[in-house]
Amino acid sequence: MDKPVVYDTMPYAYDLEAGKKYHFCTCGRASKGAMCDGSHAVTDLKPLTFVAQKTATQDICLCKHTKNPPYCDGSHAQFDDDDIGKEGPGV
Asked: What separation in angstroms does the CA of 52 have from each of 9, 19, 44, 58?
């Protein structure tokens, strides 16, 4: 099984709109990091589809190792800048 790539070591403050459907990138290979752009096609990973519960700015995980996807849970603290672009230990 493929492991997600660490896109970044910090979350991204993403403006979500209540009721809107989003496709969170779980592979870490998307060109813009937070949301899926189809880059997972070379892996066995799939995006996570979710609907925003409220209109708000939320911290979206970019390390791809959160236990609460798509939201940041601080898991990025285990990585440093040298880990960016590399497969992490998996979720």
From this structure: 23, 5, 25, 10
Structure confidence by residue, pLDDT tens digits, 21-59 = 999 999 999 998 999 999 999 899 999 999 999 999 999
User: Tens digit of pLDDT for each residue in 53-85?
Assistant: 999 999 999 999 999 999 999 999 999 999 999
Instruction: Work out the angle at residue 29's Cα, subtended by the Cα atoms of residues 74 and 67, and round it to the nearest 5 degrees.
Output: 30
Instruction: For residue 31, give every residue at least 6 positions away whose Cβ sits within 8 Å of its Cβ, in sequence order, or none.
Output: 37, 39
Q: Enter the tokens of residue 30.
A: 């998307």
**Cβ–Cβ < 8 Å for 6, 88:** yes
Residue 49 neighbours by CB distance under 10 Å: 11
